[in-house]
Specification:
alpha/beta; Flavocytochrome C3, Chain A, domain 1; eight-stranded mixed β-sheet; about 25% strand; 13 helices; six-stranded mixed β-sheet
């Protein structure tokens, strides 16, 4: 550590003031820890404050394995800790909705601001601090190879922080075009960001600097397909322009071909669209899908809105028409093979009626024809919320080195932790919160 830096001692150092970091900090502070939370941004909350506050997860280990596709041990750790996390929210008086189905699981909508601010208050009430607009420059290793704190940099000067345990919870690397292009796909360099702008891989780089391993088998990410807007980046567009209903539609590339099983979910299709020519697709649906899904909230807690209307009002490129010929003309005007687009629609409808088993790509869930006018066609692009490929951790959120051994004193949760999800998704807030709690419980702050 720098000899000129001011010195600060604490029990727990948390790097990142999002869902994972603040949940861990509040839990540990309530149990007697003196906690210092360091956040690069100007406010607490990270990407969690941009969410709807749905804390949900899979309803069984089998569903976690099927729909999350990650390390079974990490999936089991989330499910084991989820009841304690919900009980803690209730104990503290955080507002929760009734239980409701969400995608492939179940959960609650919480007052996310109340939870995060409450955790920050717990930290301060128990003698700790939340430092905003502060960056961690380097982790500190003692002679035994234990992470014993870090060097923080603020406009007022450097601070050497000594800590018994350090939690990396900076949110992943979705805000770094270079890391996205290198670790996910070259097309992700220009991808739209539906996340906070501070999660640029800081936690992962810090972990690598002390010998941590990364989950190299995991190139995926969580995000959604979005329509275009000249105002992209405004927080209201992150949900408003996301086409959550795309699992009931067809996604067709510039060559006029389907390329994925759309029914696996909009978040899964978003990963598939990245690799397509132009990193875009036409999302096509009919009136049946429009009335049942594109005008309804994706969960009960979300208000119903007309997704096509909102997309068009904000600059999206789309068409509503009773004619498939007009769909072809629209597709052609946008640089797609219009004739092939309409042939693909017709072929899908015929196979959906008489030969679902011959569909390529197959449809694992809904497989109904899209033949009821009016028809809807919208150009969509992938947008990223958080990354899956982080540091390798064990079920107690301890960061592992390249030999598979825990690095003493170092933990990771949220987007900085890899291996939880790979081919799918079973909740981001629950994953961040439960792994954050497992980290501080493993570090000694139990009940």
């Amino acid at each position: 550590m720098s000899s000129a830096a001011a010195l600060l001692e604490c029990d727990l150092l948390v790097i990142g003031a999002g869902m994972a970091g603040l949940s861990a900090a509040g839990w540990a502070a309530e149990r007697g820890a003196r906690v210092v939370v360091v956040e690069r941004g100007p406010a607490i909350g990270g990407s969690a404050v941009l969410s709807s506050g749905m804390v949900w997860t899979a309803t069984s280990p089998e569903r976690m394995a099927l729909y999350g596709g990650g390390d079974p041990a990490l999936g089991a750790a989330i499910l084991e800790t989820y009841p304690s996390a919900i009980a803690w929210l209730r104990q503290r008086g955080v507002a929760l909705s009734e239980a409701m189905p969400v995608l492939n699981g179940r959960g609650y909508q919480i007052d996310i601001i109340e939870h995060l601010q409450g955790c920050a208050r717990l930290v301060e009430q128990h003698g700790g601090a939340v430092a905003l607009e502060t960056e961690i420059v380097a982790l500190d290793l003692d002679k035994a190879g234990t992470v014993s704190g870090a060097l923080a940099r603020h406009a007022d000067g450097d601070i050497a922080i000594s800590a018994r345990a350090t939690l990396l919870a900076s949110g992943g690397f979705q805000a770094s075009p270079e890391m996205r292009a290198r670790q996910i796909h070259p097309n992700t360099r220009e991808m739209r960001l539906r996340s906070n702008p501070c999660s640029d891989g800081t936690g992962i780089r810090l972990g690598l600097s002390v010998g941590a391993a990364t989950d190299s088998t995991n190139p995926g990410f969580y995000g959604h397909l979005v329509s275009e807007s000249a105002e992209w980046g405004l927080e209201r567009h992150f949900a408003g322009l996301s086409q959550y209903h795309s699992d009931h539609t067809l996604l067709i590339n510039e060559d006029g071909q389907r390329f994925c099983d759309e029914s696996r979910g909009d978040h899964a299709s978003t990963n598939a669209v990245v690799a397509q020519p132009g990193s875009r697709a036409i999302c096509f649906w009919d009136d049946r899908v429009h009335q049942a899904y594109a005008t309804q909230g994706v969960v009960a807690a979300m208000p119903p809105i007309d997704k096509m209307q909102v997309a068009l009002e904000n600059g999206g490129k789309g068409i509503v028409t009773a004619s498939l010929d007009e769909v072809a003309n629209f597709a052609g005007s946008q640089g797609f093979d219009g004739a092939a687009v309409v042939r693909t629609i017709g072929d899908f409808n015929e196979r959906a009626r008489h030969g679902w088993e011959t569909l390529l790509p197959p449809r694992s869930e809904t497989c109904l024809p899209l033949d009821r006018a009016p028809f809807y066609a919208l150009v969509v692009h992938p947008a990223i919320t958080f990354t899956y490929g982080g540091l390798v951790i064990d079920r107690d959120a301890r960061v592992l080195d390249r030999d598979g051994q825990p690095i003493p004193g170092l933990f990771a949760a949220g987007g900085d932790a890899g291996g939880v999800y790979r081919s799918g998704y079973c909740g981001g807030l629950s994953m961040a919160m439960t792994l954050g709690l497992r980290a501080v419980i493993a570090a000694g702050w139990h009940g």
